[in-house]
Amino acid sequence: MPRPMQRSEDPEAAFHARIGAENLGALWVGRRGLDLTRPGTPARPAVWRFDDVRPRLMEAGALVSAENAFRRVLVLQNPGFGGAMRATQTLYAGIQLVLPGEIAPCHRHSQTAIRFVIEGSGALTTVDGAATAMRPGDMVVTPQWTWHDHRNEGGEPAIWLDILDTPLIDALDTVFRETHRETLQPLTRAEGDMRPAFNRRAASARDALDRLARETRPDPCLGWRHRCDDPGPTMAAFLQRLPRGFDGAPRRASDGAVYCVVEGAGATETGDGTLEWAARDVFVVPGWCRHRHLADNGAVLFSVSDLALQERLGLWREQRWEGGES
Ligand SMILES: [Fe+2]
Q1: Tens digit of pLDDT for each residue in 63-95?
Q2: What does the pLDDT look like over 192-217, one tens digit per residue?
Q3: Overall domain count for the chain
Q4: What is the 176 CA–ligand 1 centroid distance (Å)?
């Protein structure tokens, strides 16, 4: 039976309602009011101070064991994502605690993970049968789909920053995960057999950074920045030194980054507030967010972004404001 004609009905609204029911939508309506000239990530600049997070982590340690939690991690939830487990548009970040004698059981997944060790020297990560000690400043990589477990054989809490490409792998609908039949996988290889090395020791990254600082002038926006070997196909990792008195020029880049302060203190100014940070704090600068770093007494920063993937896709962009405002 034909629908009775309603003279008051807006023919365009009626059209949209009708096609909506047919799983169709009008592009010119969906785009209305959107600024499509630049990325519009909901991610916001944010900082998590280690001195605030650590007591919460210890509370978690009293509530649940690492084995029962599977991974006892406090997720760094960027306030722009309304409680979702993401630090940037494409990266997940969390602070993990493994207490003395504890085990984080063996599993594997399609995400790549980077651990940056913040506290404690007694933990070991095993990746595909090879174990490595985790010491402060080390960057330990678990490549996608490699078996990995963590254990703490020392006498002090082991705490590290986990950064994974989870939101990205989620967006591709390629999340796979498997639990090992044993809590700890058997050790079958020496650490040195792993190529490329899955633990980038703090000392070797610092050597590379120091060499850069000796041989080159500091970049006006970045200070000295050493790019570590890419930890996988999606992410890039950096160790960066801001020299004493650094008053950085503004910059923005399409890769949003998660930073961990290795030493020193400073601030990062953005159009959305100033992040003040000190050693062991974690902060986020979203993609395409204009910002500049300041460090009166110098600082060393570790950071991770999805630059490796953006480069592969030919999408990466950067804008700098060197030599004054414009
Ligand atoms: Fe994992």
Answers
A1: 999 999 999 999 999 999 999 999 999 999 999
A2: 887 777 888 888 999 999 999 999 99
A3: 2
A4: 11
Q: What is the structure's pLDDT at 23?
A: 98
Query: Strand, helix or coil at 131?
Result: strand
Exposure pattern of 101-140 as b/e (b: 16+ CB <10 Å)?
ebebbbbbbebbbbbbbbbbebbbbbbbebbbbbbbbbbb
Structural domain includes residue 93? yes
pLDDT tens, residue by residue, 122-151? 999 999 999 999 999 999 999 999 999 999
How many Å lie between the centroid of ligand 1 and the Cα of residue 106?
Answer: 8
Torsions phi, psi for 59 (to 5 deg)? -60, -45
**Do 107 and 251 share a domain, yes or no?**
no
CA–centroid distance, 49 to ligand 1, in Å, is 24
Q: Any idea what the Cα angle at residue 285 is, between residues 225 and 226, rounded to 5°? A: 10
pTM of the complete model = 0.94
The residue among 241, 211, 232 whose CA lies nearest residue 303 is 241
187 CA to centre of ligand 1 in angstroms: 18
Same domain as 166, residue 78: yes
**What's the CATH code of the domain at 252?**
2.60.120.10
Dist. CA 136 → ligand 1 center (Å): 19
Q: Does residue 40 belong to any structural domain of this protein?
A: no
